[in-house]
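tmp note - Secreted protein
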Amino acid sequence: MLRIRGRRTALTALALAASAGLAAPASTMAAPRTVVQPDVPAIAENVPADVLAALAPTIIGAVSTPGFIAGGGTVGILAQARALLAIPGIPAQVKSTLGRVITFLDGSGGGGPDLPPASGPRIAQFLYPTIGKGCIGPTSDSVGTALAVPGPAVLPPPGPKPGQTAFVLTALGTKVAAPLQNPPLVVQWINLDTRHSGTQPLTTEAALNTEGPATVSAIADTGSGRIAAVISGSLTTTTATSETRTCAFAPTLGFFTVP
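out:
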């Protein structure tokens, strides 16, 4: 069973630090602006996330299958979320989160979220931290926190521009991320309003947390609209003596709006 571990405050602090040096791709994708729906917030620590994680294959299928999103809606993902909500005995907070996922997907979530503070960007934390088996040591797992920073973000340039999203994952307790990530952690995203989708590796090019813990990132041309994203894959770390360790992280999900 996948469970949330670690301190939420530590995750947020590392996330904010990681977002400060992101590098953007050369081009952007124009997309129509949509009404901003409230982002789906992360669940609390130590709440089982298995039910939420079950949405990952459906989102990945939407990314990889042309025509999966029909009529401007989110038929497959929405149907899966409703089916999961009907499972008896799921934790109350997971049930509440699934309800928010459904209103995000069907567009009934109402107005936008509170404005971000003037001193920093708007951070959309993924629904739950993910576990990397054996990332710290043979019997020591790492808690990975993932987040999205919708552009335009008030960051040291060249941060995410309008219509772009920065994705960041930090693996708590690990050493430095190795320059070569093979295989890498990957973000798979779909814009539910424009039907654009993409897959992109998270890399060390932005040189975030160069003394550890391992942090990888990417900036994607998501366009404006409601975004569903999955981050999963492998992370390789290295020590001062060039000893490397590769571990796999279970999928984690994010639902947010790019204005």
